[in-house]
């Protein structure tokens, strides 16, 4: 497996690996497929793709022993993994891997086509699990039970969810992450106490999907996860068309429409941005973050998309006068909650630049796609491939040599679709 980063993240993260496979395909389709062998090899009997597959690297917290998934009946034997998921970008990444292989021709194309035929039913199980286990209310929003599932771990969008969590007995936490990144760039100890508290709640019910909602303190209808599902369901539908599975193609298009409808229903008419839903409180939340632009990921309403594009490229986000590059920070620099050096509380993330550019290109918005690509490559020209960047100075933060940041540069420079 390709680890997410050399030191800070010495294991395979699910959505990191999906993105990384796109970059690997430019170098070797066969090698990219090996990455998916690890991802799919860890798929639970329920269909879930766990967010971490652990390598033999003990210097990481929380490791497999902390997760306690050895008691999870759905976890495949012999595979050490976490017990939660991450954004379902997998199908849209596989679609790109296949396109890259076909463009190379010959053996690469043959391998890509054979891999697609094998991957389609695995992806179908993954999407079906997400709809069955994480949309119990039937409103279309994917429910998450931990900020880590969103991929945007400590974003201010989750503050209302974490603030209700009281940890009765704090634990000693071996913060191995602080060996490789400054504490000012990482979540706090208080946040980590809450993160581990949620894991313990899942352990108490043996990670059983039917039992978790009744005990978990964190129940968020995640609009970004939902938009990602819509985009990936469309990609899976196109691949199902190619493999001749008309029923699956129809199922995935219906899934995409259901998810898109939920994303668009979340839009605040005043701000124009998408909103998460707090299942415990029974209402949408009003924290503005990069996830608020989720309609740009899934499309579905030209007016909403046009308004969000105008806001994203405007002076509070990409066009902010203090930005080093015209790229979207995770939180607007004008927001009092913005901490421009701290993880998902302000920095610019190269992988978000790539994802928004990819979705813009898919929807025919070549101006936004090319703008994100050009500025994103300028940011990555430092060759540090930072996990995230200080929006005002362009300083790389968090882990350096981050695998998915390198993928963004490689794909932008290599794939014909960007030309």
UniProtKB/TrEMBL annotation:
Pfam families: MGH1-like_GH. It comes from the Bacteria. One of its GO terms (molecular function) is Glc3Man9GlcNAc2 oligosaccharide glucosidase activity. Residues 9-405 form the Mannosylglycerate hydrolase MGH1-like glycoside hydrolase domain. Keywords: Glycosidase, Hydrolase. The keyword Heme does not apply. One of its GO terms (biological process) is oligosaccharide metabolic process. Belongs to the glycosyl hydrolase 63 family. This is Glycogen debranching protein.
């Amino acid at each position: 497996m390709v680890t997410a980063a050399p030191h800070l993240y010495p294991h395979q993260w699910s959505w990191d690996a999906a993105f990384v496979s796109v970059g690997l395909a430019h170098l070797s389709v066969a090698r990219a497929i090996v990455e998916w062998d690890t991802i799919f090899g860890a798929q639970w009997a329920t269909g879930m793709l766990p967010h971490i597959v652990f390598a033999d690297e003990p210097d990481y917290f929380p490791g497999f022993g902390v997760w306690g998934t050895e008691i999870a009946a759905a976890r495949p034997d012999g595979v050490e993994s976490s017990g939660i998921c991450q954004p379902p970008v997998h199908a849209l990444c596989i679609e790109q891997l296949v396109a890259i292989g076909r463009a190379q021709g010959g053996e690469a194309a043959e391998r890509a086509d054979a891999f697609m035929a094998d991957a389609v039913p695995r992806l179908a199980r993954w999407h079906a699990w997400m709809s069955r286990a994480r949309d119990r209310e039937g409103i279309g929003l994917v429910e998450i039970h931990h900020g880590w599932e969103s991929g945007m771990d400590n974003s201010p969008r989750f503050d209302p969810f974490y603030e209700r969590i009281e940890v009765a007995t704090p634990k000693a936490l071996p913060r191995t992450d602080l060996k490789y990144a400054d504490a000012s760039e990482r979540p706090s100890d208080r946040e980590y106490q809450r993160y581990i508290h949620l894991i313990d709640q899942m352990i108490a019910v043996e990670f059983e999907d039917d039992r978790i909602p009744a005990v978990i303190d964190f129940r968020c209808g995640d609009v970004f996860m939902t938009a990602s599902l819509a985009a990936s369901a469309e990609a899976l539908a196109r691949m199902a068309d190619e493999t001749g599975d008309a029923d699956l193609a129809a199922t995935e298009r219906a899934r995409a429409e259901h998810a898109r409808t939920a994303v668009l229903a979340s839009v605040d008419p005043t701000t124009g941005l998408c909103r998460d839903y707090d299942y415990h409180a029974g209402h949408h939340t009003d924290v503005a973050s990069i996830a608020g632009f989720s309609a740009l990921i899934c499309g579905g309403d030209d007016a909403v998309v046009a308004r969000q594009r105008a806001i994203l490229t405007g002076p509070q986000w990409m066009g902010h006068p203090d930005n080093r590059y015209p790229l979207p920070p995770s939180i607007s620099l004008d927001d009092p909650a913005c901490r421009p050096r701290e993880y998902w509380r302000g920095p610019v993330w190269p992988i978000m630049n790539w994802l928004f550019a990819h979705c813009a290109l898919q929807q025919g918005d070549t101006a936004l796609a090319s703008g994100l690509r050009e500025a994103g490559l300028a940011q990555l020209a430092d060759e540090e491939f930072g996990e995230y960047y200080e929006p005002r100075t362009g300083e790389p933060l968090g882990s350096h040599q981050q695998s998915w940041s390198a993928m963004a540069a490689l794909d932008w420079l290599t794939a014909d679709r960007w030309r």
